[in-house]
Amino acid sequence: MPAPHRLTVREIATLVGGQVEGPADAALTGIAPLDRAGPADLSFLASGRYLQYFQHTSAGAVLLGPEFRTVRGGPASRILVEDPHAALARLVPEWFGAPSATWAVHASARLGRGTRWRGRVAIGTGVQIGTGVELGANCRVDAFATIGDGCRLGDDCHVESHATLEDGTELGRGVRIRRGARVGGPGFGFVPRSGAHERIPPVGRCILHDGVEIGANSTVDRGSVGDTVIGPGTKVDSLVHVGHNVRIGAHCLVMAQVGIAGSTVVEDDVVLAGQAGLAGHLRVGAGARVGAQAGVIGNVAAGDSVSGYPARPHREVLRQAAALKRLAPLVTHLEELARRHDG
Amino acid sequence: MPAPHRLTVREIATLVGGQVEGPADAALTGIAPLDRAGPADLSFLASGRYLQYFQHTSAGAVLLGPEFRTVRGGPASRILVEDPHAALARLVPEWFGAPSATWAVHASARLGRGTRWRGRVAIGTGVQIGTGVELGANCRVDAFATIGDGCRLGDDCHVESHATLEDGTELGRGVRIRRGARVGGPGFGFVPRSGAHERIPPVGRCILHDGVEIGANSTVDRGSVGDTVIGPGTKVDSLVHVGHNVRIGAHCLVMAQVGIAGSTVVEDDVVLAGQAGLAGHLRVGAGARVGAQAGVIGNVAAGDSVSGYPARPHREVLRQAAALKRLAPLVTHLEELARRHDG
Amino acid sequence: MPAPHRLTVREIATLVGGQVEGPADAALTGIAPLDRAGPADLSFLASGRYLQYFQHTSAGAVLLGPEFRTVRGGPASRILVEDPHAALARLVPEWFGAPSATWAVHASARLGRGTRWRGRVAIGTGVQIGTGVELGANCRVDAFATIGDGCRLGDDCHVESHATLEDGTELGRGVRIRRGARVGGPGFGFVPRSGAHERIPPVGRCILHDGVEIGANSTVDRGSVGDTVIGPGTKVDSLVHVGHNVRIGAHCLVMAQVGIAGSTVVEDDVVLAGQAGLAGHLRVGAGARVGAQAGVIGNVAAGDSVSGYPARPHREVLRQAAALKRLAPLVTHLEELARRHDG
Predict the structure, then answer these.
(1) Model ipTM?
(2) Which of residues 181-210 of A touch C (CB under 8 A)?
(3) C150-177 burial, b if ≥16 CB within 10 A, otherwise e?
């Protein structure tokens, strides 16, 4: 990550609200991991697992959390901060600027009748936009993305390459749809008819509120009997499936490969860890945490942490796993005891 | 969903075979969920969970299942039907017509030597079609889809945008390949050679029979030692993986994120719920139901319902989960009992 | 699979190092599965499950493993080999040649400033390549693939259609990125800021060594605090997710729908079976085998075989499953015994 201009260690410390230890005048030109950084790079130490890299790094300066204040070795220039990750999140946009975009509509893009936009937009190669679409200011739509009829995008949205928004999808401000994500397709709902599965026509839309992100190659179905809704600030990782009529609240984190079946409600601030699955028509209360691979087949109360299949409190899962481990060798004894107890 | 023409409540009831209660002459112009419908919209109530929306909806008329016949409140115009979802499935194509397509080959599409079609086709922007491909009448291939050499598509097939059919794939009539699905790629089979993994060349094809649907971003591998086959009417949801040489029967439902390993046979009318996984070289009998997240590592008899890992009858899973919950606190006691019993 | 030229049974046997039984002079023109092969096709029998097809095949000759030497029926011409799959892997490239490519840059492809290549390359329709990209000799980039700024590809790489390499991704020699795979996107790491989730800027890259394959629609995130690295010869199947900073060793097999969370280390020669999940910050030792759907939440020692959730030695899982099955009916007895033991 080479930066467009140099910053001294002192200037960087000021930008991130940190405290310099050692020389403060070296001019740095980029950021790199400890094991790859050179004398003109800033690096960072956020976990003890990287201490060995720290001791041998050639970085010009290092951002350090408070727990590493007294660590020996490593570069002479240090910037102490509360949280190196948060410092990076603050520093990078200041130093590197927003990623560049070509604010124009590429000649090969196709825009349908009645489509319009406010302010500048960046529409890439081959982009297909349907009829009656509204784009806010500063929207970017990358190469080969397709946007169906009647979609509405707020300001600062970014639809990445190869992504799809199907007809009628609505995005708030600052929504990001990552590469290859499919948003607003019909859900997997069928009724039997003459011995075949016939799709229930989807009447609902897919509505993503401000700041939502949908990860690469994820799929979010439109509503069938209502809308599918994802609340403000919720981040969805890669390869996630969100079924029809699902409602997810604000500021949730939905990790890779999670699946949520139709009509389930996930309240605010919930964390769904990787590969977790939620059956349909459930409610997961605010602030709940669903563990990796958990199989949720009943409601989860607000604030609960569950895991396993069927999902239950995580401590219980671990206690039961330990019990099971100790019980297995006992079974034959126990059967005999039970027989004797019967007899 | 605004319709191209108005229908009265009475006309709608006739189309769906329903019975009107209340005023029958209002002209409606579209369909919307209860919480978003206006006076010119038809809405529907298919589950008690939506009763509160029903009582406050502004819809002009509502389709109701028989269990809601006596429900109070809600719109004055009601249409009673056996199954509101089935009524919608019947109504929507009649009222809205089939989705429109541009029956032409876009100038930017590339068609290989010897490729031909019967009747009209709709080939979108940038579509890449190989050599010797046969397309039936009314086939649609949307923007940026790619179809390899020697593929054959029956009438009324629809390959959506960004989808891929690799060489030699065969589709029956009315097959739908949704956005970003990858059909006919080589499977994950390797032999060791000079210390490396060398792919077993796939000699088989991928054959999807009439009415099959493959969901968004799903992957279906071609056969290695035989063909991969999916039977008529089977519907596959998003992000599903079907391995090489798998054979799936007719009218199955394969839900999101299911994985089926190589050479497994799934007979007719099977339901595989979300995130279920089937190991390779197994047989799942006709009409079986495999629960969400189940891990199937042995054959499943026709008609059985299994869940958990390793997958076993669902009732047994629930009984064992309950037993485990009660047993965990007993383990120390039991170990002591067993010791005494030994001694 | 029709071949460009005929080979006699004897010539085929020589190419694969096999031994002919029966007539050796028939000229064959292609390879097909037993149930579809005709008199001019070679077929193969690698498993007893296909014996019935063998007995009724019309194939002109069949490759057979040593265990089928004495099998009766089937075609008169047989070629006995140690391993029919390995024989196919050797035969197919010799007989069919490498798949053809058009060694040219398509007029619709867009290449950024400073992008250059060594030797011939095949760049397909609509391909988007950023600035400062280096391509080795014989690289293929298929239709609609996108390659970001500063990527480096070794010789003989193949980026298939619709695949994505984000900025700075590095591929060794002979790397294959299959259709729709997304390599080098930012990971799912956030810090809280003003009540919102703010992404930790990814400073690392994604580095795939010689011979790596990434399956269709899989996602591999770039590093945040280091690089994401996949070692030489490792094969990754479809719909797999590899998180940021993950390091995978050499010659691993990662099967469909596996998920690996951030910063986990997988050593050489590990097999991760389908749908397995690895939590973050773990280490899986060399040669370990992680079973299908296993949920790994602790380190796995070199050479261990684990399964279940939480993952533990596979034998233990099966023993516990059996114990659980026998224990469930005993629970009431055992509770009573324990009560008595207390009293």
Answers:
(1) 0.92
(2) none
(3) bbbbbbbbbbbbbbbbbbbbbbbbbbbb
Instruction: Give SS3 for C26.
Output: coil
Does residue B343 have a pLDDT over 70? no
As a residue count, chain A comes to 343
Catalytic residue among B244, B251, B281, B341: B244
Q: CB count, 10 Å around CB of B109?
A: 19
Mean pLDDT to the nearest integer, C120-127: 96
Inter-CA distances, A89 with A16, A336, B112, B167, Å: 9, 63, 49, 46
CA dihedral over C176, C179, C181, C182, signed as positive or negative: positive
Residue with tokens 């009475």: B10
H-helix or E-strand containing B78?
strand B78-80
Helix axes C331-342, A331-342, angle to 10 degrees: 80
The tens digit of pLDDT for each residue in C4-30 reads 789 999 999 999 999 999 999 999 998
Residue B159 pLDDT > 80:
yes
**Span between the terminal Cα atoms of chain C, in Å:** 77
Helix (H, G, I), strand (E, B) or coil at C28: strand
Q: SS3 for A322? A: helix
Our answer to whether residue B5 is catalytic in this structure is no
pLDDT tens-place string over residues A172-214:
999 999 999 999 999 999 988 888 999 988 889 999 999 999 9
Place of tokens 């060398």: B198
| CB neighbour list of residue B322: distance below 8 Å, 6 or more residues apart | none
The CA distance from A30 to A6, in Å, is 8
Pairing of strands B78-80, C235-236: unpaired
Write the CA distances from A288 to A269, B248, B301, C196, integer angstroms: 7, 38, 38, 17
pLDDT digits (tens, 9 = 90+) for C30-60: 898 898 899 999 999 988 888 889 999 999 9
Pick from A230, A291, A287, A282: which is nearest to A255 by CA? A291
Q: Is the peptide bond before C23 cis (omega within 30 degrees of 0)?
A: no
Alpha helices in chain C (DSSP H): 9-16, 51-56, 84-96, 314-327, 331-342
Whether the CA torsion C47, C50, C54, C60 is positive or negative: it is: negative
Among all chains, which residue has been given the structure tokens 């008199």? C39
Closest alpha carbon to B161 in B124, B129, B107, B108: B124
Q: How many CB atoms lie within 10 A of CB B287?
A: 17
Peptide bond before residue B310 is cis, with ω within 30 degrees of 0: yes
What is the Cα Rg of chain C in Å?
26
Residue numbers in A near B314 (CB within 8 A): none
CB contact under 8 Å between A330 and B325, yes or no, is: no
User: How does pLDDT run across B101-155, given as a tens digit for each residue?
Assistant: 889 999 999 999 999 998 899 999 999 999 999 999 999 999 999 999 999 999 9
Q: Which residues of B touch A226 (CB under 8 A)?
A: 33-36, 50, 53
Chain C environment of A144 (Cβ under 8 Å): 126, 144, 146, 162
Token pair listed for B147: 């179809």
Paired residues of C214 in beta bridges: C177, C236
Distance (Å, rounded) from C-alpha B54 to C-alpha B73?
A: 8
CA atoms within 13 A on the CB side of B173: 3
Q: Which of A96, A31, A29 is nearest to A63 (CA)?
A: A31
- B309-336 pLDDT, tens digit per residue, is 999 999 898 888 888 888 777 777 778 8
Residue with tokens 């039984």: C21
**Residue B258 token pair:** 């299911």
Selecting from C185, C243, C310 the residue whose C-beta is nearest the C-beta of A179 gives C185
The one-letter amino acid code at A166 reads: E
